[in-house]
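Friendly challenge for the regulars: who can give me the structure tokens for this chain first? No prize, just bragging rights.
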Amino acid sequence: MDEATNKSLTASLAKSWLEELDATIQSTKERIHDRIHADLPEFERQLQTSISVQTRLHTLVTEVDSLNHSLHDPESGLVPSLVKTLTAHSTLAQKATNARIKHEALSYLLRCSKEFSSLEGLVRNGDLPEAVESCASIEQLLKDAPIALAQSDVYLDLKRKFNASKARTEEQLSDAYSRCVLVAPHELTIAQSVQVRQSERTLSLSETLSSLSLVSLDNHLNTLRRDITTHYIDILLTQPMSIIEEGFKLSFFPSPPNDEKLESRIDNLSRTLHFLHAHLFTYLPAAKCSSFLQSLCKPVISSVLNNLLISNLPYSFNRLPPFLELVKDAVSFEQTCIIELLGNDSADRPIKAWADGVCGHYERQRRVHILENTRAKILEPEDFSDTFHVEVEVVQAAAEPEVVPIQEEGVAEDAWGLEEDDASASAKVDDSGWGFEDDTGSAKTGEDGWGFEDEVNTDDMDKIDDGWGFDTAEEATVPTGDDPLPDIKPATNGHEPEPEAEDAWGLDDDATADDAPPASEDETNWDDPWGEKTSAPPSTSVESPRPPPAPSIKSPPKVATRLEKLANKGKKGLNGHSPMNSPSMAMAFSPNVSSPSFSPAIASPSFNAKVTQSPSPSQPSLPSLPSAASKLAEKRPPDLSISAPKESYLVSTSMKDIIALVQETLREGREVGDSKSLSPAHESSSAPGSTLYQTAVSILDLYRALYPVVFSGILQSLEGPMRFSNNTLYLSTEIDIIVKELHGSNVQTVKERFCECGRTFKLLSESWYGDAIEKQRQLVDKILAESTQGFTSTGDQDRYDECESAMNRSLQEIRRVSQKWKGLLTKSKYYTALGSVTDAALSRVVQDVLALGDIPELESHQLSELCRILLALEGLFSEDPEKPSFVVAYVPSWLKFSYLSELLEASLADITYLFEEGALVDFEVEELARLIHSHSLHQNYHESEPTSPSKQLRPLIVLLFAQATNGLGKNWPLKKWASEQPRPGGRAENLDEPLSRANVLNDWNPDIQEKTSFYDPLHSLSIPPTPPTLPQPPLSISSSTERILTSPASVLPTQMRLAQIVEMVHAASLLHDDVIDESPLRRGSLSAPEAFGNKFAVLGGNFVLGRASAALARLGDPEVIQLIASVIANLVEGEILQMQDVESPDGEAVPSSQVAKNAWTLYLQKTYMKTASLMAKGARSAVVLGGCADGEVYKEVAYAYGRNIGIAFQLVDDVLDYEAAEDTLGKPGGADLQLGLATGPALYAWEEHPEMGPLIERKFGEAGDVELARRLVRKSAGVERTRALAVGYATQAREVLQVLPESEARAALEALTERVIKRRS
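First reply, four minutes later:
Bragging rights claimed.
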């Protein structure tokens, strides 16, 4: 039917549908009818069943109602009748129970009444033991009380009365105990029986103790233990007491302490304990007796140890024997009383254990006591006036004595022991060990190689003085021949100086024994802090060897004037009179200034200390010179008395106290160790005296650790570290003496600790000594470094004043150091320290001066004057004003500094002469080269170079554009990779590699000697070497797609070299410009043509261009080579344009617009060619080397910036030619007009003043033209308009930079545009 449509639906189709529907309905009716007939019998059966159930239910309900009436009827029902019967039965049962409980309660109460009545009677009669038993039974009875009485009033009342009776019984027992045992501070009574109060009953002590309850007994025993401990144990062991025993009573009476023996205290305690044991302890209940007695053991043991033994442990060894007797008594007391009487464990014997270690206890207590005393001594305020002098002997070389005399006159010996032929006794000049000749004309047979005279009067050989003017009392034998050389040691301490002192320095060698003038004590003006006096020299003097003096000069130079005396300083030294010594020898005992750290331990002489109050020597000792032992042995006399030099230094008196404590501790340790009564009880115990030995070392350790912390403020002062250094040095020497006195196998460990301690103190002394020196060295170095700023620009008066102030401050500081340290140190250490500080100042000055590049004549004079300020330090190294100073011996750089101060004003002839004579041996070759270079260039090209900021403008632009664009170019990865490769145009070191062989180039460059060579006249055909294979970029490196600046900003080696090339091209152009312009000045100094002539100036410029071209080729970039080469052409073109004339039409007074335009075009074109071209193409080249390819805008930005700023720079320069003064500009004012050049201001003035035209046409050639042109420019706005034009170009340069990303380099380029406009020179 759903599928039928209007077209397919017909009557026949609808009829068939109706017929089919009728058939279906009929079939359904038939099925329903059949189903109903089938289920009808079952339905009828179920209906009958339901009727039957309903009937039975009705019957059941009727029967239930009948049963309910039978059960619950109030009158005849079964349940009400049962309830009534049960209630009656319950009432009868309750009555029976109540009657039974009342009977039990009454019976219990009757029993309690009887027991309580009995207890009351016992208490009243005083039968306390029986009362206690009764209380126990009543208490049990109360516990068994019926439950019904537990909360009744009568029971509670009965219980209260019982507790009261029990308490009364306990109270009476306690009272009885208290009256039996009476413990008082000065009396102890133990009664054996006592009568109960208010009764006639007497109780024994045992009954009382046994009747007390456990709680009460414990309380009484605790109280008893406390009272025994307090009143007897502690008191008897801490105070002298006398005991009187009267029956059952002990009485205690204080005794006078002066005649008391400590053993009596132990006896008193023992007597007391035995008394208690006999009269009290035996009556204690067995359950409590043992525990109570053992509880007394610990207080007794503790009191014996703390109050008797430990507290009375002696502080001195002489009191130790009586104490040992006391210890024995204590051990016996422990056995008899504590173990046997009180029952302590026999294995637990603390007193015996303590007694076995009594030696260790004593030593440890002494250690604490000694260290406390030491600490108090160290913490005492420092008293700088409480000092003493320690005399020391300078230890010389073990292989030879300091004095090397000659046996007979006329025999010469050189310093190196080399034999020479002695032809005659005529005047003969010996060569020194260094090869310098002596030009002396004296008739002496010869001198040693060091310039010292070796003549000695052998008759007076037995009166040879030591290096400080003290004579020895004994003679030392000097072996001859091949015998070994023994150590020459002084035989006396030299406490008393001889009346005559010898010239230990050999400064009086010309004076003979007959004509030597005596020196009085009042003739010296030297304030000697060592307390020495100057005495007359003896008749015969023996020279001490000294470091070699400065080399002598054979004959005075013809050209050297001021330096003649300076060069001849060493001449007198060769005769043994000069103090000038070369630094090579001074280094044997002076700090090494070339090393980064100064080690005073090497610089300081060695000493043997000896405490004395005598005055110190008068001259500092110098180290002996090395020589051949065999030669010395052959030429020494067989018997020679030599005294070692002696010096002294200041030490705090408290050091004596420290050493005294150490020695006293060691003495006591020896006594303890030697005592047989203190032998260790166990093999594992330390040996007697070992702790005291260790304590002696701890005293020194305590001082070493505590003093620098407590007195840190003093150690920050100038003299504080030196005082501490002296103290520790003194302690180290005293420790050495102590170690030598220690003997025995049991002190080996202590000796090792002492040796280590001595080394530590010595190292500490050297460390503080060196640190103090280094601190002052750094201070003077800081003063000079920060204030002088490398001595640059000293030609400026303000800078010169700053440098002069710094030099004076360093001079004052060194003098202050001298005042503080003089007299505090030994002379050798004093001069070594002072020399090191002085050397730091001189070395700083020498280093800074030699680091200067070119020194103009004015600055050279100023530097020389500054150096002379520090020459005043020479006086600090002289102890006799009439004798030369020995400064060279202690200041290694003194000769170099003194020569430098003179060389700064010397001529080249002077320097050449001194160099040829060997007077400048202290200078390195490079230093001399720089000095000669500086002197020869006082009027050279470097002085003609611009020194204002404009000098660095061109390379600065190159480098800034490199930083501003590196990383932005397409080829930056390749350029970056190439800069790291060993190839042309790669790493910085490869930029110096020649592209052709050195013998082909024949281009000598002293800076790269290994890569260049001179012309070789012999040249043969050779097979060229195989060129090395150049590294190729890996495939992973390709053109960059990123445009990110490098971070941090970087400059490639090729870009750095480009900046140098640009500056070289600029410098060459200046040389040529000065020739063309005939300029006498360049930046305030003589120009190169004026100083050397036109030929040398032109050749010099060409040479610089040649070197620049070679360097340019090694960059390896054709575009850059083309750009820079075109710059050189532009420079030439610009110079030619500058020579062209500016002409106007005939008969015209006012220039036409075309003429003015031509003039401006010519002027700006010339400005670009000569100035802006190098800046523009240099900047563009930097960008090309950074990887920018064609089509990238950064190359155009660089070129536009350089072109605009270059023109602005030249416009400002033309303005300054009219504005700036000659001293500011560095060249004569109006130079452009003098050269006939019409610059921007003149061209602008031409527009305002027509009369300027003829002047420009004839190039200001007639007289008065220059002055008239300057007036016309001033009257016009030409200067202002030119500056405004420059501002316009600078603004354009700044605007083009906006294309670049922001960076520090771009900001610097922007700032550069402002500086160019605002410059004034």
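Residues 1034 and 1059 are 29 Å apart (CA to CA). The longest strand covers residues 387-394. Your move, everyone else.
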